[in-house]
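Pasting as-is:
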Amino acid sequence: MTEWHFYEPEQGHGLAHDPLNAIVAPRPIGWISTVSREGRRNLAPYSFFNLFSYRPPIIGFCSLGEKDSLANVRARGEFVWNLATRDLAAAMNETSAATDEDEFVRAGLETLPSARVAAPRVALSPVQFECQVTQIVQLQDRHGADLPGWLVLGEAVAIHIDRAMLDDGVYRTERARPILRGGGPADYFEVGEQFAMHRPT
């Protein structure tokens, strides 16, 4: 017989660590590059990130707090998503530091220019989406009170894929070795077992 740990979030979880981000996991990483109105570069990872639409392609990340990425997308209306991979994990983690430094310099990352937006791309990332912001939505609780979190949605207007990731025109997810955020203060995952299931007709 199953024994349940039950809690209501408003009353606390009663555990050693909040289980929420360990349960909703692993999550893709939004490694977001932006440029301020004055031209200052920024690169930061976001674990609240995903794809929301095929046509047009819409991706989004959530900034918990008024961070540089949020200020920059408000000012410029654009950003770049860079795929975070196992080979780039240490550099990605370095860009999560709260600092006034240029994160590209801090992490020793080379850049490539974008085609449609001002923000640079991470040169060694095998996939980058250049995005124009479509919406910035402040989160609210169930009572309608504003929360200190903003969902940034952007349409990918230009996409770069390393051709080595393609087999006969099919993108091979595992070949890029994407990393995913888990729970706790330090857990990450790499894509492992693959299996196929076709939708029922």
